[in-house]
Write a structure and sequence with these properties.
Layout: E1 2-5, E2 16-19, E3 29-38, H1 42-48, E4 64-72, E5 84-87, E6 90-91, H2 97-100, E7 111-112, E8 127-131, E9 135-137, H3 144-148, H4 152-164, E10 172-175, H5 181-193, E11 196-201, H6 204-213, E12 217-220, H7 226-233, E13 239-244, H8 251-257, E14 258-266, H9 280-284, E15 288-291, H10 297-308, E16 316-321, H11 325-333, E17 340-344
Parallel strand pairs: 10-11, 10-13, 11-12, 13-14, 14-15, 16-17
Antiparallel strand pairs: 1-2, 3-4, 3-8, 3-17, 4-5, 5-9, 6-7
Helix pairs in contact: 4-5, 4-10, 7-8
Bound molecules: NADP nicotinamide-adenine-dinucleotide phosphate and zinc ion.
Length: about 350
């Protein structure tokens, strides 16, 4: 089968498009003919390599996908050949106490599909295998690329805002990196929750997009003093929640932007992992710093209901054929995207 893969970490030119071995089904797994995939920033981390993270090589990236079931292992039931499905990126043992109590994100053997799995095990391929627990019916009203873009970002946002930060109607929520995949789902979810999203983004075109996604206010990181604008917009009080995945460069502003008793929830650090903090803010303002990582199957089901009810829509803004994954990754790396980028996969190509 054809796939996009790499055999060593590096810049975009390590990505190759070509023939790789077909996936072989193991117990509890289903084989998908991929119709579409979607980008996440962990594609960039995987390709570039991260300190102290060893990834299986050769590596096929792609943590989100949608496709048709074409084979199932003998022990699988509940999923049949011909089913149209979307994928859930959490590969776990399904047997340990954490898995059995529905917290597979704490499973010691949890691996993010298309990021930590392999060799050759992600959605940028004509065929892919996943555990049967990693599929759910494709929402019928979505096209394949929208369906593929429905999972990882939305699920992560749900866990961050609903489970971890317990966002509620009336909260003011500062959303960093608001125009990207994670950010644009966060804006939509704020609207559903009745919270007031204050988006931070880096251009006028992105600001317009953020408003379409549900931002009530937009702050321009390229032209505005973010902290001064937050204070203006909240009558000096600060925001109840900061939603962050940018990290090091924005951390000091995040901490100062929080209201007393506020919460900062973070799932990533695109701009660096080692922020400076004056710890006095932490206790004097009685802040909470909350980490969040992917989400459970239960959370996946909960957020998919919002998609089924048309309250949240996967914001796919551009689609590329499989062999153009490098062009799509370049847009992401250069911070030139809005919403989700998707990959259309043709089994006959
Ligand atoms: N742990 C988890 O569960 C989890 C889940 C999802 C994502 N993440 C992490 O969250 C981060 C964002 O992921 P994503 O998939 O949403 O990425 P994305 O679609 O590329 O969006 C990232 C956005 O962040 C802003 N940004 C700020 N500094 C940036 C920089 N140096 N390079 C690129 N973008 C920058 C940009 O928005 P503006 O131009 O609007 O500021 C950009 O659109 C990544 O670090 C990712 O690993 C973690
Ligand atoms: Zn487990």
């Amino acid at each position: 089968m054809k796939a996009v893969y790499f055999t060593e970490h590096g810049s975009l030119d390590v990505l190759q498009y070509g023939d790789v071995p077909d996936p072989e089904l193991g117990p509890g797994e289903v084989l998908l003919r991929m119709e579409a995939a979607a980008l996440n920033f962990n594609d960039i981390w995987a390709r570039q390599g991260l300190p102290r993270v060893a990834l299986p090589m050769p590596h096929v990236s792609g943590t989100d996908g949608a496709g048709v079931v074409v084979d199932v292992a003998k022990d699988v039931d509940g999923v049949s050949v011909g089913d149209e499905v979307i994928t859930y990126c959490v590969n776990a043992c399904r047997r340990c106490p954490a898995c059995l109590r529905g917290e597979e994100v704490f499973c010691k053997r949890m691996r993010i599909w298309g990021f930590q799995t392999g060799p050759y095990d992600g959605s940028y391929a004509q065929y892919a295998k996943v555990q049967v627990q990693q599929v759910a019916p494709k929402p019928a009203h979505l096209d394949w690329t929208e369906a593929a873009a429905t999972t990882t970002s939305l699920l992560s946002v749900w866990r961050m805002l609903v489970t971890r930060a317990q966002a509620k109607a009336g909260d003011s929520i500062l959303v960093w990196g608001a125009s990207g995949g994670t950010g644009s789902f966060a804006l939509q979810l704020c609207r559903v929750l009745g919270a007031r999203a204050i988006a931070v983004t880096s251009s006028e075109a992105k600001a317009r997009f953020c408003r379409e996604m549900g931002a009530e206010e937009v702050i321009r990181s390229d032209t505005d003093d973010v902290l001064a604008r937050v204070r203006d917009l909240t009558d000096g009080r600060g925001v109840d929640i900061v939603f962050d995945h940018v990290g090091e460069t924005v951390w000091p502003t995040s901490v100062e932007s929080l209201a007393w008793g506020g919460k900062l929830v973070i799932c990533g650090a695109t701009e660096g992992f080692e922020p400076k903090i004056d710890l006095r803010y932490l206790w004097n303002k009685q802040l909470s710093f909350l980490g969040s990582h992917i989400g459970t199957h239960r959370e996946w089901m909960d957020c998919l209901r919002l998609v089924e009810q048309r309250k949240v829509h996967p914001p796919v803004t551009r689609t590329f054929p499989l062999h153009e994954v490098p062009a799509a990754q370049k847009l992401m790396e250069d911070r030139q995207l809005m919403g989700k980028l998707a990959i259309r996969i043709d089994a006959d190509a």
